[in-house]
Automatic annotation (TrEMBL):
GO terms for cellular component: bicellular tight junction; plasma membrane
Residues spanning the membrane: 235-260
Mode of membrane association: Single-pass type I membrane protein
Lineage: Eukaryota, Metazoa, Chordata, Craniata, Vertebrata
Pfam families, alphabetized: Ig_3, V-set
Top-level taxon: Eukaryota
Listed InterPro entries: F11R, Ig-like_dom, Ig-like_dom_sf, Ig-like_fold, Ig_sub, Ig_sub2, Ig_V-set
Organism for this UniProt entry: Grus japonensis
Signal peptide feature range: 1-29
Family of the protein in this entry: Belongs to the immunoglobulin superfamily.
Protein name: Junctional adhesion molecule A
Amino acid sequence: MAGAVRWGGPGPRPLLLLLGAAAVSLVGAQVTSETKEVPENKPADIPCSAYRSSWNNPRIEWKFQKGSSLVLFYYGGELTEPYKNRVQFSPTTIHFSTVTRQDTGKYICEVVGDSSQIAKSEVNLIVQVPPSKPVAHVPTSATIGSKAVLRCTETDGSPPPTFRWYKDSMLMPTDPKTSLTFRNSSYTLDPATGELIFEPLSGFDTGDYYCEATNNVGSPQKSDVIHMEASEVNVGGIVAAVVVLLMVLALAAFGVWFAYSRGYFSKRKDATGKKVIYSQPSHRSEGEFKQTSSFLV
């Protein structure tokens, strides 16, 4: 995780850079942590359990962490943008008038007393969003004996949904060997990723498939139905195609040979490379001495 935080305590506040996977920590801090789930577009209160009323003039800072991003949103007694118009601050709580899915993340409250006492609390806020209609990625045809991968995807649900698969409207168990209906099939099913893998694929696996996404927020959502056909390799068709191809090539070769043998691809020339036109002699008596043939160049 990479980000910047400010260190509390007397004197100037140096900027600390957190590198790699180092965790945000305050030396000697008392740390509490909890998780809250709030429906989207509803108000939310994020408690600061680190606050101590017995501490004299404590200084409070709030940070928001989401992935590798760390934002300082309450510092020096003021809310920063864009929280000024969305959040109400009190020493023990920050109040959101309404939350959206972008507010999902970790809220960190750090409290420093004037005697260098330090406390820290964290709240993991999950803004609940029902899943949208998932998309089923199913091959329409696959070869028996091969590996076939089916995937189910959904991007809106919070918390992230889990997935179930149906074949011919029947729920597929995670382990096919536990079901009389699916025991002849060989597959693995991961509810967290929505991946269904047949290895090897069998003729039994032909059918209509769809997936379902659910996160217990709103109603489960189903994908469209896609038919997958498991078929044998068509050896006869492949052999026939090869025979036809060989016949075509043989006919083409014969045609080229025949054309060459008839002289369609060449013209007669004399030794100098010039064209020669030869005329046949006419019938004459043996006593006549005349030119019986002529060469025109």
